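Late entry, written up from scratch paper. The run itself happened at the end of the previous shift, but nothing got recorded in the book at the time, so transcribing now.
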Amino acid sequence: MNSHTLRRRASSVAFVILFFAAWEFFCLASGMSDLILPRPSQIFQTLWERMPILWPHIVQTVSTTMIGFALGVLLGVVLGALIGSSRIAYDTAYPLLIGFSSIPKVAVVPIFVLWFGSGTVPAVLTSLAICFFPIVVNIATGLATTEPEMEDVLKALGANKFDILWNVGLPRTMPFFFASLKVSVTYAFVGTVLAETVASNRGIGNVMMSASSNFNTPMVFAGLFILAGLGVVLYAAFSLIEMRVTGWANRKNDLLAA
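Output as recorded:
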Protein backbone atom coordinates (compact mmCIF):
# COMPACT_ATOMS: atom_id res chain seq x y z
CA MET A 1 0.00 0.00 0.00
CA ASN A 2 1.62 3.26 -1.14
CA SER A 3 1.67 6.57 0.71
CA HIS A 4 -0.97 8.10 -1.57
CA THR A 5 -3.45 5.33 -0.69
CA LEU A 6 -2.66 5.64 3.03
CA ARG A 7 -3.25 9.40 2.96
CA ARG A 8 -6.49 8.96 1.07
CA ARG A 9 -7.83 6.38 3.53
CA ALA A 10 -6.68 8.40 6.54
CA SER A 11 -8.49 11.44 5.14
CA SER A 12 -11.66 9.39 4.69
CA VAL A 13 -11.53 8.09 8.27
CA ALA A 14 -10.83 11.59 9.61
CA PHE A 15 -13.80 12.99 7.70
CA VAL A 16 -16.13 10.33 9.10
CA ILE A 17 -14.94 10.99 12.65
CA LEU A 18 -15.33 14.74 12.12
CA PHE A 19 -18.88 14.22 10.83
CA PHE A 20 -19.96 12.30 13.93
CA ALA A 21 -18.16 14.74 16.24
CA ALA A 22 -20.00 17.67 14.61
CA TRP A 23 -23.29 15.78 14.93
CA GLU A 24 -22.65 15.15 18.64
CA PHE A 25 -21.67 18.77 19.26
CA PHE A 26 -24.70 20.11 17.42
CA CYS A 27 -27.12 18.00 19.47
CA LEU A 28 -25.47 19.02 22.76
CA ALA A 29 -25.15 22.71 21.89
CA SER A 30 -28.69 23.06 20.57
CA GLY A 31 -30.35 20.96 23.27
CA MET A 32 -31.90 18.79 20.57
CA SER A 33 -34.49 16.34 21.90
CA ASP A 34 -33.67 12.64 21.62
CA LEU A 35 -37.08 12.11 20.04
CA ILE A 36 -36.05 14.26 17.09
CA LEU A 37 -32.33 13.59 16.63
CA PRO A 38 -30.37 11.38 19.05
CA ARG A 39 -26.65 11.86 19.54
CA PRO A 40 -24.27 9.37 17.87
CA SER A 41 -23.06 8.30 21.33
CA GLN A 42 -26.65 7.33 22.24
CA ILE A 43 -27.06 5.42 18.99
CA PHE A 44 -23.82 3.46 19.49
CA GLN A 45 -24.79 2.76 23.09
CA THR A 46 -28.14 1.40 21.89
CA LEU A 47 -26.35 -0.81 19.37
CA TRP A 48 -24.03 -2.15 22.05
CA GLU A 49 -26.75 -2.83 24.61
CA ARG A 50 -29.36 -4.25 22.22
CA MET A 51 -27.10 -6.23 19.88
CA PRO A 52 -28.13 -9.65 21.33
CA ILE A 53 -31.73 -8.75 20.45
CA LEU A 54 -30.85 -7.17 17.10
CA TRP A 55 -28.59 -9.96 15.88
CA PRO A 56 -31.36 -12.41 14.76
CA HIS A 57 -33.03 -9.57 12.88
CA ILE A 58 -29.73 -8.66 11.21
CA VAL A 59 -29.28 -12.27 10.10
CA GLN A 60 -32.84 -12.31 8.77
CA THR A 61 -32.39 -9.10 6.77
CA VAL A 62 -29.00 -10.10 5.36
CA SER A 63 -30.11 -13.61 4.35
CA THR A 64 -33.31 -12.31 2.75
CA THR A 65 -31.39 -9.61 0.90
CA MET A 66 -28.75 -12.03 -0.38
CA ILE A 67 -31.37 -14.44 -1.68
CA GLY A 68 -33.25 -11.66 -3.46
CA PHE A 69 -30.00 -10.17 -4.74
CA ALA A 70 -28.76 -13.52 -6.08
CA LEU A 71 -32.04 -14.12 -7.88
CA GLY A 72 -31.94 -10.54 -9.19
CA VAL A 73 -28.41 -11.03 -10.53
CA LEU A 74 -29.42 -14.26 -12.27
CA LEU A 75 -32.52 -12.68 -13.80
CA GLY A 76 -30.66 -9.50 -14.71
CA VAL A 77 -27.82 -11.33 -16.48
CA VAL A 78 -30.20 -13.51 -18.49
CA LEU A 79 -32.45 -10.63 -19.53
CA GLY A 80 -29.50 -8.32 -20.15
CA ALA A 81 -27.77 -10.87 -22.37
CA LEU A 82 -31.00 -11.48 -24.26
CA ILE A 83 -31.77 -7.78 -24.75
CA GLY A 84 -28.20 -6.84 -25.60
CA SER A 85 -27.75 -9.54 -28.21
CA SER A 86 -31.15 -9.42 -29.93
CA ARG A 87 -32.74 -6.38 -31.53
CA ILE A 88 -36.18 -7.99 -31.39
CA ALA A 89 -35.81 -8.69 -27.68
CA TYR A 90 -34.62 -5.12 -27.13
CA ASP A 91 -37.63 -3.61 -28.90
CA THR A 92 -40.04 -5.94 -27.10
CA ALA A 93 -38.74 -6.33 -23.56
CA TYR A 94 -37.00 -3.04 -22.86
CA PRO A 95 -40.16 -0.87 -22.79
CA LEU A 96 -41.80 -3.39 -20.45
CA LEU A 97 -38.80 -3.36 -18.12
CA ILE A 98 -38.73 0.44 -18.05
CA GLY A 99 -42.43 0.50 -17.23
CA PHE A 100 -41.96 -2.05 -14.43
CA SER A 101 -38.96 -0.21 -12.96
CA SER A 102 -40.99 3.01 -12.91
CA ILE A 103 -43.58 1.49 -10.56
CA PRO A 104 -42.88 2.41 -6.90
CA LYS A 105 -42.00 -0.88 -5.24
CA VAL A 106 -44.00 0.01 -2.16
CA ALA A 107 -47.04 -0.43 -4.42
CA VAL A 108 -46.16 -4.04 -5.29
CA VAL A 109 -45.50 -5.23 -1.73
CA PRO A 110 -49.25 -5.60 -0.95
CA ILE A 111 -49.60 -7.66 -4.15
CA PHE A 112 -46.79 -9.99 -3.04
CA VAL A 113 -48.42 -10.27 0.39
CA LEU A 114 -51.75 -11.10 -1.27
CA TRP A 115 -50.11 -13.83 -3.36
CA PHE A 116 -47.65 -15.35 -0.86
CA GLY A 117 -48.73 -14.09 2.57
CA SER A 118 -46.59 -12.10 4.98
CA GLY A 119 -43.08 -13.17 5.83
CA THR A 120 -39.84 -13.79 3.95
CA VAL A 121 -41.14 -14.41 0.42
CA PRO A 122 -42.53 -10.89 -0.18
CA ALA A 123 -39.25 -9.43 1.10
CA VAL A 124 -37.21 -11.63 -1.25
CA LEU A 125 -39.40 -10.73 -4.22
CA THR A 126 -39.31 -7.02 -3.41
CA SER A 127 -35.53 -7.17 -3.12
CA LEU A 128 -35.35 -8.95 -6.47
CA ALA A 129 -37.75 -6.51 -8.14
CA ILE A 130 -35.83 -3.44 -7.05
CA CYS A 131 -32.28 -4.64 -7.77
CA PHE A 132 -32.36 -6.49 -11.10
CA PHE A 133 -33.03 -3.54 -13.43
CA PRO A 134 -29.57 -1.88 -13.11
CA ILE A 135 -28.00 -5.25 -13.95
CA VAL A 136 -30.16 -5.65 -17.04
CA VAL A 137 -29.29 -2.16 -18.27
CA ASN A 138 -25.55 -2.53 -17.71
CA ILE A 139 -25.29 -6.00 -19.24
CA ALA A 140 -27.28 -4.89 -22.27
CA THR A 141 -25.14 -1.74 -22.60
CA GLY A 142 -21.93 -3.73 -22.37
CA LEU A 143 -23.05 -6.12 -25.09
CA ALA A 144 -24.34 -3.30 -27.28
CA THR A 145 -20.97 -1.52 -27.13
CA THR A 146 -18.94 -4.54 -28.24
CA GLU A 147 -16.75 -3.54 -31.19
CA PRO A 148 -18.29 -4.73 -34.50
CA GLU A 149 -14.81 -5.27 -35.93
CA MET A 150 -14.07 -7.89 -33.27
CA GLU A 151 -17.32 -9.67 -34.04
CA ASP A 152 -16.49 -9.63 -37.77
CA VAL A 153 -13.09 -11.18 -37.12
CA LEU A 154 -14.60 -13.98 -35.05
CA LYS A 155 -17.27 -14.62 -37.68
CA ALA A 156 -14.55 -14.85 -40.30
CA LEU A 157 -12.84 -17.47 -38.12
CA GLY A 158 -16.04 -19.51 -38.03
CA ALA A 159 -17.41 -18.50 -34.63
CA ASN A 160 -21.17 -18.66 -34.16
CA LYS A 161 -23.29 -16.18 -32.23
CA PHE A 162 -22.96 -18.05 -28.95
CA ASP A 163 -19.16 -18.21 -29.29
CA ILE A 164 -19.04 -14.44 -29.82
CA LEU A 165 -21.30 -13.85 -26.82
CA TRP A 166 -19.31 -16.17 -24.54
CA ASN A 167 -15.78 -15.23 -25.58
CA VAL A 168 -16.17 -11.52 -26.36
CA GLY A 169 -19.53 -10.12 -25.31
CA LEU A 170 -19.69 -11.30 -21.70
CA PRO A 171 -16.03 -10.51 -20.84
CA ARG A 172 -16.59 -7.09 -22.42
CA THR A 173 -19.48 -6.48 -20.02
CA MET A 174 -17.54 -7.27 -16.81
CA PRO A 175 -16.81 -3.61 -15.87
CA PHE A 176 -20.47 -2.75 -16.52
CA PHE A 177 -21.60 -5.83 -14.60
CA PHE A 178 -19.61 -5.07 -11.44
CA ALA A 179 -20.66 -1.43 -11.55
CA SER A 180 -24.27 -2.59 -11.55
CA LEU A 181 -23.63 -5.07 -8.71
CA LYS A 182 -22.37 -2.33 -6.40
CA VAL A 183 -25.51 -0.31 -7.05
CA SER A 184 -27.92 -3.23 -6.99
CA VAL A 185 -26.78 -4.65 -3.65
CA THR A 186 -27.71 -1.38 -1.93
CA TYR A 187 -31.05 -1.38 -3.75
CA ALA A 188 -31.61 -4.94 -2.55
CA PHE A 189 -31.42 -3.77 1.07
CA VAL A 190 -33.94 -1.05 0.31
CA GLY A 191 -36.36 -3.63 -1.09
CA THR A 192 -35.95 -5.99 1.85
CA VAL A 193 -36.42 -3.32 4.51
CA LEU A 194 -39.38 -1.88 2.63
CA ALA A 195 -41.14 -5.25 2.68
CA GLU A 196 -40.16 -5.92 6.31
CA THR A 197 -41.81 -2.70 7.44
CA VAL A 198 -45.05 -3.70 5.74
CA ALA A 199 -45.34 -7.47 5.80
CA SER A 200 -42.99 -9.14 8.27
CA ASN A 201 -42.51 -9.66 11.98
CA ARG A 202 -38.73 -10.10 11.68
CA GLY A 203 -35.84 -8.15 10.26
CA ILE A 204 -34.32 -4.71 10.72
CA GLY A 205 -37.23 -3.07 8.91
CA ASN A 206 -39.67 -4.52 11.42
CA VAL A 207 -37.44 -3.43 14.32
CA MET A 208 -37.36 0.12 12.99
CA MET A 209 -41.12 0.18 12.50
CA SER A 210 -41.74 -1.10 16.04
CA ALA A 211 -39.24 1.37 17.50
CA SER A 212 -40.86 4.22 15.60
CA SER A 213 -44.31 3.36 16.92
CA ASN A 214 -42.85 3.38 20.47
CA PHE A 215 -41.03 6.71 19.88
CA ASN A 216 -37.69 4.95 20.42
CA THR A 217 -35.73 7.20 18.06
CA PRO A 218 -32.24 5.91 19.06
CA MET A 219 -33.32 2.40 18.05
CA VAL A 220 -34.61 3.70 14.71
CA PHE A 221 -31.26 5.34 14.03
CA ALA A 222 -29.48 2.20 15.23
CA GLY A 223 -31.34 0.29 12.51
CA LEU A 224 -30.28 2.90 9.97
CA PHE A 225 -26.66 2.58 11.09
CA ILE A 226 -26.83 -1.20 10.74
CA LEU A 227 -28.21 -0.94 7.22
CA ALA A 228 -25.62 1.65 6.27
CA GLY A 229 -22.83 -0.52 7.66
CA LEU A 230 -24.04 -3.61 5.83
CA GLY A 231 -24.31 -1.65 2.59
CA VAL A 232 -20.77 -0.31 2.95
CA VAL A 233 -19.36 -3.78 3.70
CA LEU A 234 -21.03 -5.39 0.69
CA TYR A 235 -20.11 -2.47 -1.57
CA ALA A 236 -16.47 -2.80 -0.47
CA ALA A 237 -16.56 -6.57 -0.99
CA PHE A 238 -17.79 -6.21 -4.57
CA SER A 239 -15.23 -3.46 -5.17
CA LEU A 240 -12.44 -5.83 -4.12
CA ILE A 241 -13.79 -8.56 -6.38
CA GLU A 242 -14.09 -6.03 -9.19
CA MET A 243 -10.43 -5.03 -8.83
CA ARG A 244 -9.40 -8.68 -8.98
CA VAL A 245 -11.54 -9.53 -12.00
CA THR A 246 -11.49 -6.31 -14.03
CA GLY A 247 -8.27 -4.64 -12.94
CA TRP A 248 -7.41 -4.18 -16.61
CA ALA A 249 -10.34 -1.76 -16.93
CA ASN A 250 -9.29 0.47 -13.98
CA ARG A 251 -6.22 2.14 -15.40
CA LYS A 252 -7.41 5.62 -14.40
CA ASN A 253 -7.00 4.95 -10.68
CA ASP A 254 -3.48 3.66 -11.30
CA LEU A 255 -2.57 6.82 -13.18
CA LEU A 256 -3.96 9.03 -10.43
CA ALA A 257 -2.02 7.15 -7.80
CA ALA A 258 1.24 7.42 -9.75
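Residues 50-250 form a domain with the MetI-like fold fold (CATH 1.10.3720.10).
(Scratch paper discarded after transcription.)
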